[in-house]
Amino acid sequence: MPSPLETKATCPYCGVGCGVLIEHDGRQITGVRGDPAHPANFGRLCTKGSTLHLAARPETRLLHPELRRTRAEPRRRIGWDEAIAHAADRFADTIRRHGPDSVAFYISGQLLTEDYYVFNKTMKALIGSNNVDSNSRLCMSSAVAAYKQTLGADAPPCAYEDFDHTDCLLIAGSNPAYAHPVAFRRIERARQTRPGMKMIVVDPRRTDTAAGADLHLALRPGTDIWLFDAMLHVLIAEGHLDTAFITAHTEGFEALREHVRDTTPARAAEVCGLAAADIVTAARWWGPAGAAMSLWCQGLNQSTHGTHNGTALIALSLATGQIGRPGCGPFSLTGQPNAMGGREVGGLANLLPAHRELANPAHRAEVARFWGVADVPAQPGLSAVELFRAAGAGKIKALWIACTNPAQSMPELAAVHAALARCDFVVLQDAYRSTETAAYADLLLPAATWGEKDGSVTNSERRISRVHRAVPPPGEARADWRIVRDLARALAPRLGRPEAARLFDYADSAAIFAEHAASTVGRDMDIGGLSHGLLEQAGPQQWPFPAGS
User: pTM of this prediction?
Assistant: First the structure.
């Protein structure tokens, strides 16, 4: 029996970004193993990754476009040309009648970077709105804001290698033993190799991660900022600050000092439901450590004050100079495999490519010149929750959803279902026809999925991995970037801008990646993000959180 073919790709489950080797016969995926050459996992896979091939099955796949012209009729099979033309007609008519902000894209951290890029460009350069947002908004946007407010750029200054060099690891709002298991295995090995390494876990629950901690701080939910401020209070009182670093690289520290003056361990202990002595212990482990780093995820991010959670934690690194050296820094783990790639290309309602700011006129002008359009709209688009509320209010009249299932995954589900039912025209671009959102779709477009896609992803440590297609997609399914490219080409003449169709002359995903890479020219970051010289590049940092937060 011939040996199976092998194709390099990445695991699509979490933000660790493990490299995999897909085993196949050219038509069907038969197995998977870890890629021993990939620096994110060196061949290791968790249970989810090692059973990926079992998910590559034909059941419930969407195999051809389906359309219903009225909600009273069932969807029927149509060809791709009719599907694209109908979608372009409906979007163009909506834009003419109600303006560009009456349409929206809701996309996903499961998309490849190239897919993200074309969706973003179609909305912002062609349609003339910023109404493109991602399900990454629900998990990562507060970390984005925290990094930008403190470090000056959305770029985690850490790598998985830092686990091997840290003396004190503080994990907050994250259970990597369960959610990012391959990364956690690396933490476990680091602790075995360096027995003096301390691990502090901040979590109301005794998770698998917390069970192995040297110190588990089981605080009351929502009181994390009190804990971090009290730790900083101890660091100040006991002289563990890096005053030279603060002077050289930060601004506003005296205001922060005043902010935490009365946040004593005793007072924070009452609020957090902790022992004051444990708060002091955590600070004393962090402060004198030769290298200390923090690790956080959705437990901090998914909060009404998620950005402030992040900034308070990052303050511990900056106040002690624990950044820009091996084993140091604040490290936000992404939940999805390409949430970071979407951030890099500006695939959110308030961002632009290469970490440019939508609110910055110079950045908008740079992107407009690069894309060859007159301007990029200045008004921020609707974020994920706002987008569905606007659809429910009748303001979003045409909604294109790709690679995500908001009817199951969004907050306020009853309102989301009502919004999808009210929206005049709903397109769902997905690999599967059985999702909860599919029931609301007027047009279903079959997309390729894992093992059938070619492009790139960026993991939590900002490492870019090439993803190769192993097998062709089934039926009439197509790559996500190709679907939205065809929409843009069809939409341009219908919007009275036939010349704009040339902006989407992409023959393959490599051409899109090359354009994305070119968009970073002149920025302080390369295509893979900032180096450990982040602070020197970004300039003085501000302490952003207000008194009483």
Answer: 0.93
How far is CA 129 from each of CA 124, 156, 483, 490, rounded to the nearest angstrom?
Answer: 5, 29, 19, 18
Per-residue pLDDT of the chain (549 residues; tens, 9 = 90+): 567 899 999 999 999 999 999 999 999 999 999 999 999 999 999 999 999 999 988 899 999 999 999 999 999 999 999 999 999 999 999 999 999 999 999 999 999 999 999 999 999 999 999 999 999 999 889 999 999 999 988 989 999 999 999 999 999 999 999 999 999 999 999 999 999 999 999 999 999 999 999 999 999 999 999 999 999 999 999 999 999 999 999 999 999 999 999 999 999 999 999 999 999 999 999 999 999 999 999 999 999 999 999 999 999 999 999 999 999 999 999 999 999 999 999 999 999 999 999 999 999 999 999 999 999 999 999 999 999 999 999 999 999 999 999 999 999 999 999 999 999 999 999 999 999 999 999 999 999 999 999 999 999 999 999 999 999 999 999 999 999 999 999 999 999 999 999 999 999 999 999 999 999 987 755 433 332 222 222 233 333 333 233
Which residue in 16, 160, 121, 142 sits closest to 354, CA to CA? 121
Helix (H, G, I), strand (E, B) or coil at 391: helix
CB 544 within 8 A of CB 254: no
CA atoms 476, 480, 484, 489: torsion sign:
negative
Pair type for strands 443-446 and 66-67 = antiparallel
Residue entry with tokens 């009648």? 97
Which of 33, 70, 17 lies closest to 460 in space, CA to CA? 17
- What are residue 204's phi and psi, to 5 degrees? -60, -25
Q: Are the CB atoms for 479 and 447 separated by under 8 Å? A: yes
Tell me the C-alpha to C-alpha distance, in Å, between residue 52 and each of 12, 30, 256, 472.
9, 10, 47, 17
The span from the CA of 371 to the CA of 483, in Å, is 20
Degrees to nearest 5, angle at CA 447 with 384 and 467: 90
The two tokens of residue 240 are: 């563990």
Q: What residues are paired with 402 via a beta bridge?
A: 429
Angle at 298 between CA 230 and CA 168, to 5 degrees: 50
b/e code 152-183 from CB counts within 10 Å (16+ = b):
bbbbbbbbbebbbbbbbbbbbbbbbbebbbbb
Cα separation, 202 vs 239, whole angstroms: 24
61 DSSP assignment: B
CA distance 238 to 236: 6
Q: Which residues contact 517 (CB under 8 A, 6 or more apart)?
A: 527
Question: Looking at the chain, how many residues does it have?
Answer: 549
Q: Are strands 356-357 and 351-352 parallel, antiparallel or unpaired?
A: antiparallel
Distance CA 256, CA 235 (A): 13
Query: Could you give the 3-state DSSP secondary structure of residue 244?
Result: helix
